[in-house]
Fold:
Amino acid sequence: MDAKRPSAILGMAVSCVLTCIVMLLVCVSARATALLPDGRSFEMVTPLEKNGGEINGIDGAVPNNGLPEGGIVQAASDGDSVTYVSLLAFPGSAGTQPMGAPIASQYLSRRDSAGWSTTNLTSAVNSGTYAVSGSGAPYEAFSSDLSQALLLSGQPPVKNPPLTPDAPAHYMNYYLRDNGAESFRALLTSTPTEGPGEFFFELQGTPPDLKHVVIASPAALTPEATHNGEGNNLYEWADGQFQAINVLPGASHPGETASGQAQLGMGFDENHAISDDGARVVWSQLESRSLFLREHIGTPQVATVEIDASQGGPDAGGFGEFKTASANGSRIFFTDRERLTPDATAGGKRGHEDLYLFDAETGGLTDLTVDASDPGGASVLGVLEASEDGSYVYFVATGSLPGTGAVAGNDNLYVWHEGSVTFIRPLSEADNNNTSREPIVAHDWESTTGKRTARVLAGGRRLLFMSSANLTGYDNRDASTGSPDEEVYLYDAPSGGLTCISCNPSGVRPQGPSGFPGGTPWRTVPELGTYQPRVLSADGNRVFFDSRDALVPQDTNGAQDVYEWEQDGSGSCTREGGCIFLLSAATNTSESSLLDASASGDDVFIITRAQLVGQDTDHLRDLYDVRVGGGFPSPTPIEACEAEGCRPALSAPLAASSLASSTFTGAVSPSAGVTKPAAKKVKPKKKVKPKKRQHRPKRRRKQSGSGGHKARARGHHSSAVSR
Structure:
């Protein structure tokens, strides 16, 4: 008995140490959670077992391997589900296994009262049919509630088997996946006249509910359509039927497609080029250089109208470039070098365009940027965004519009609202191609969803955008490089107020740029995106962004973190001018990135390698929900020490008040503290016998040296400051 006593004592000691470590993680995560604003808590969305896989960010490169990120990253509007991509396949927490081998796998995580569960959405596909770009995942769009998804079958000739019995074998196709019933519906159900190797079929765009899908194909997919050997036809799919879109006004047959290259808007995925109900589609024809509206789609009254035709102006028309539209497609905004109305002042050549509004209900055309004092006209560079109803539109022009006080030659930011134009501020020339946050590049006034970064919400009253210009008097020259850093700004149209959301409240120069992501790219060309992550709550009172600057005293990790700005009176903020809160790890040296948020802003999804809850025991990049009123039980350590010599693990965690910053103004969540994960998450047998799994302790020792347990034990703080 005495000979066995030392080994028994050693085993008990190791077990107790491991138990203490688990308890320490629980205590640290409890303190971090308790200090989040708005009563938020961290919830680990991704499963712990990920086969070594990293969760992809929206753009940029995966650290250390140079492979592209991307693919569809999107949260449901209610925040109860989220989809994302990983380059390595891992089983979902619900036991779902990947059925094929694409370069990347798409996952869907759902929340219920028991926690988050994950499903691998990968179908029976062959990896050779997908490119690395766009992360190599077959999915190209999700509905706003994530109940539906659209995936590509592969490149022609397709090696993958059809996902439905009515889909022609070996043909390029798109399928709608019902994520509830886990069933598929093919868009193409009849065999084309072309062979599988020649047939081409490509997504152009879709409204948020995915009930209407616009695709491009040279094939004749309707009885009246003609094969377009010189370019592509446009079709809208709805309820199992295709409707021809590229039909010219006065065509001899209702569905007779025009020859030449037709495209949605002025290219791919244009913002609201498809109305939310699918009844209106804006398209253009390269050969005629004209802009058209196909309206009343799906009814006997379907017709085509030329949008950029002259209406009493001195010029013939044409050359319209679609920018954006209202959600129902009734108000369409485009630029044109031609003078299309009697009062138009466009300059007649590229770079001297005016901004026009076409009213689809009346057929009327209005020049919104009349500038009779300048022979070059308003010289509109682009449109940031319009409100859902089209009553507001924000744009940039180098012209000085009458009565606004803008200086000609600057990149002037304007807002038009029901007949009145207001000058906001002059922007920087770099703002539409800002590389300060490389590899992420900001394009504030690009019209394509994949590139554009600006957001408009709250009925058009609020504009969120990024700029490296000094717009509010804050010295935004980087403390190290001396070059201007990009900052985040929020404009309130009714008051005319402009707030720098990300400018350091201390007044010191920034230590790095701030910003937020643009669209989620799904192919090789970065313009191609079908979704813009929410970074501004629907009421305009919350803003979420990334920053490499330390905006609160507790941010000491020197890495990019995720922040929240709140309007006074919203959530935890009680300070005039608004409050800044930290939503990610304050001391862990791992970078954190914003992915998306729910419409209300109650859910904020971030990715990080920091271990923010007790059950996160690896150092892989995980997806978290920083949720108002959230939090699930964290794993309760299994008592492995039962013999003599065992000691209690840890005392109760420190009170939140002993860790809070003196500048913190947010409410401390009374129950946001210790979460107790289910015991099934803990694997004590593996920990009690470390000799059998030597690689795990070695990995922990290596990683803890760069921000591991010691760094995490210092706690996590959130702070609000007066703006």
